[in-house]
Amino acid sequence: xxxxPSRRATVWKATLILIPFVxxxxxxxxxxxxxxxxxxxxxxxxxxxxxxxxxxxxxxxxDSARLAGKIWxxxxxxxxxxxxxxxxxxxxxxxxxxxxKTDVHLVSFxxxxxxxxxxxxxxxxxxxxxxxxRWDFLTGPKSTxxxxxxxxxxLAVSDGSDEAGIPVHSTRMVxxxxxxxxxxxxxxxxxxxxxxxxxxxxxxxxxxxx
Length: 210
Description:
Elements: H1 3-38, E1 53-55, E2 61-63, E3 72-77, H2 85-94, E4 105-110, H3 118-127, E5 135-138, H4 142-152, E6 157-158, E7 168-169, E8 172-176, E9 182-187, H5 193-207
Parallel strand pairs: 3-4, 4-5
Antiparallel strand pairs: 1-2, 3-8, 6-7, 8-9
Helix pairs in contact: 1-5
């Protein structure tokens, strides 16, 4: 006599278990639909990134020539940032899985290189589960990094010499094509930042195949 209630309870439990998976699947599908729609639009050009030489999280020299012929995505952060950096880095981390079958590279520049030595950046990268083969965290002379940010990437940056005493930097991620041309800026704090960036990256992958 208790079989019917038992069956209903089993079905109800199964439904509760399935709801999160179905919801996640629908959200991923909706993101892909939006990416497919966005990637058909034209991607602008904002100038070229010049040659640079820095040091990565493994303490190895990093020459920008390693990025030649690759599409890459950059951001400017620092490991002790009390503000937006964790969100920016999380957004960058979210790009790893959808781009894992491509040759797209990720590059994070520290705007506090005096504190962010290679070993510090390595620990920061490990927390983000960054693939060291495809995501470099760079440090080096402050003058080089600040010139890159302000003059070359055309992003705001301050060394923390103001009243607050902390570095101030842009919260935008930057998309660079295979020819070293900047093709887009994406506000990391915006809800659709990853979707828009993935759409434009997909556009470039089709426009500039390997």
